Amino acid sequence: MEFMGFYDVMRENLNMYRGEYERIVDYAPDLFRLLCELLAEADLDRMDRLKLCAVIGYLVAPNDVIPEEIYGPNGYIDDVYLCSHILNEVAGRLGYGYLEEYWHGDEELEDVVVECLERSSGILGDDRWTILRYAGLE
User: Fold this and answer.
1) Cross-referenced InterPro entries, in alphabetical order (predicted)?
2) Which of 111, 51, 107, 39 is nearest to 83 (CA)?
């Protein structure tokens, strides 16, 4: 499966970012990679696949709710929210142990997802619902 092009672009965009939201937006590329690798897994049901595809589509869309072109690295906050939202949902059904097999990050996946979900939800507030609707998940 080849997805490194977009992964590399995200990594490059975030490489020099040092800001208030650095801790969570730095996870965006690895979360994207995890979603892509999960799509290859036969155990996922149809609805989970559709949701993963919706989130991946949102990540690559140039004009999402908080576009990177306008907001720079802070534009990844909505992407991190969607990734952590769907991963938390899938983990609720399959368990974090199942997802860990596909995770390439250095930290425990559950810790990353919980932190990203909590922080991004707090930052976005009610805009979360707009983002979920835009991605077709609400």
Assistant:
1) DUF1232
2) 51
Please count the structural domains in the chain: 1
Buried b (16+ CB within 10 A) or exposed e, 70-79: eeebbbbbbb
Nearest to 54 by CA among 69, 7, 46, 112: 46
Q: Tell me the C-alpha distance between 50 and 131, whole Å.
A: 16
Alpha-carbon distance of 131 to 81, in angstroms, equals 9
pTM metric for this prediction: 0.91
CA distance 27 to 24: 6
Query: Are 36 and 6 spatial neighbours (Cβ–Cβ below 8 Å)?
Result: no
Domain that holds residue 14: 4-134
- Reported as a single tens digit per residue, the pLDDT across 94-105 is 999 999 999 999
